[in-house]
Amino acid sequence: MGSFSIWHWLIVLAVVLLLFGRGKIPELMGDVAKGIKNFKQGMNEPEETDVASSKTIDNETGEQVKSTKKTTKL
């Protein structure tokens, strides 16, 4: 009872086919493949793009802080 037999897997497969149909499963697998491909591309991108975007965020927040200090003087 601890492991699944072939009959368990056949029942699971039949339920999945009934729920999703034959046409939907290839679409789902294609979407999964695209997601994996995009993830791998994201992992291979250089870190420089992340550093540049973080610098612009720091500059923007720095400017916001300066403007806030100017407006809150009594």
TrEMBL record:
InterPro entries: TatA/B/E, TatA/E. It comes from the Bacteria. The chain crosses the membrane at residues 6-25. GO terms for cellular component: TAT protein transport complex. Residues 43-74 are annotated as: Disordered. It is a single-pass membrane protein. Keywords: Cell membrane, Membrane, Protein transport, Translocation, Transmembrane, Transmembrane helix, Transport. GO terms for molecular function: protein transmembrane transporter activity. Pfam families: TatA_B_E (PF02416). This is Sec-independent protein translocase protein TatA. It comes from Pseudochrobactrum saccharolyticum. The gene is tatA.
